[in-house]
Design brief:
alpha+beta, paralog of FGE (formylglycine-generating enzyme), three-stranded antiparallel β-sheet, 5 helices, globular
Length: 273
């Protein structure tokens, strides 16, 4: 018996409706944030600064690198959407990587296990290659310098996670006199516009990027090129930094040899959206 046009349309609608619902939920699933990661939307943000060292701090402190110049010029960039970890990678997270990869743990661990009670502290004394391999083991990667800065400064280009006025009580920063490394997320005030914790302080963080000049910059350095990686963010008071708020500025660029293992340098991971 031939099926009427009306019945054919009804059957087709019953098939199409469930498929449309399925596609809707699949699309929502694809947009969902991976566990403990935050989606940073595509679009423009402010990177770098035009600040100059009017007080002559470099000469006063004997700093090798001039302050601010490698941040020039301030510019507006637009990058694709990406995911980035909400927190710095903790000892307990890194322990799973060590167990699975059979590689050497950070020097301060001893016996292939982190010290008791330090599971929620950021892992440190990992070089750039360790950090890269950890992220890759999870299908992630290190954030680029631009991604890190957008995540930290937000859409309005804050100098600190909480705004544009320095306050040493709002994060575990070198000028804050809080002591050593603290548990990830300890400072609710050191939380960026997008919801990332410890971007201003606690430990410095590796990025994917080589230490290179910004396009249009007015500073030349023999350190530029593929010899140093960029680390971002300030660290706790015993980090070896001078106790100055300049190191807490989210635009500050620290150049570090990728083989270095520092007691105040950790990382977080990112991934493509």
């Amino acid at each position: 018996m031939a099926i009427s046009l009306k019945k054919s349309l009804l059957i087709a609608s019953l098939i199409v409706f469930p498929l449309s619902v399925l596609f809707f939920f699949l699309s929502r699933f694809q947009e969902a944030e991976p566990p403990e990661m935050i989606l940073i939307p595509k679009g423009p943000f402010i990177m770098g600064s035009n600040t100059v060292d009017e007080k002559g701090l470099q000469g006063e402190l004997g700093n090798k690198k001039p302050f601010y110049l490698d941040e020039h010029p301030e510019r507006r960039l637009s990058i694709p959407a990406f995911f980035i970890d909400r927190f710095e990678v903790a000892n307990r997270d890194y322990a799973r990587f060590i167990a699975g990869s059979k590689r050497n743990p950070p020097p301060y661990w001893g016996d292939s296990a982190y010290p008791k009670g330090l599971g929620l502290l950021p892992v440190v004394e990992v070089n750039w290659y360790d950090a890269r391999d950890y992220c890759q083991s999870l299908g992630k990667r290190l954030p680029t310098e631009a991604e890190w800065e957008k995540s930290a400064r937000g859409p309005t280009g804050n100098l600190y996670a909480w705004g544009n006025t320095f306050d040493g009580t709002k994060g575990n920063v070198s000028a804050g006199s809080h002591g050593g490394i603290m548990m990830i997320g300890r400072f609710a005030t050191d939380r960026s516009h997008y919801g990332l914790f410890d971007m201003t302080g606690n430990v410095m963080e590796w990025t994917e990027s080589w230490y290179r000049p910004y396009p249009g910059g007015d500073y030349e350095s023999e350190d530029f090129g593929e010899q140093y990686k960029v680390a971002r963010g300030d660290a706790f008071g015993e980090s070896g930094h001078y106790a100055m708020e300049i190191f807490s500025r989210l635009t500050y660029r620290q150049n570090v040899y990728p083989e270095e293992r520092l007691a105040f340098l950790g990382f977080r991971c990112a991934m493509d959206a």
